[in-house]
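Workshop exercise sheet. Pairs work together: one partner reads the sequence aloud, the other fills in the structure field after running the prediction. Swap roles for the next sheet.
Pair: D.N. / O.F.
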Amino acid sequence: MSTVSLDEIKKLVGMQLGKRNVREGDRFVEDLGAESADVANLVATVEEKYGILIKEAEIANIFTPADLLALVQKRAA
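Structure field:
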């Protein structure tokens, strides 16, 4: 498994949410306008892309691309 970069995660978030210039600290709901279904789809995409499983309880703690990156790195290790 190659290292997952913040730029990869930001690009993926931007594509999933139809946003440009996503920053690591942007909050999915408050700053990027995502709804819960959008976050669920984003998590599913990340799981498939990186071959990981994110627990439902962990999803509640993912608010930003930086949070998502940390979780992906933890799971992919």
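Discussion prompt: The chain is about 55% helix and 0% strand. What would you look at next?
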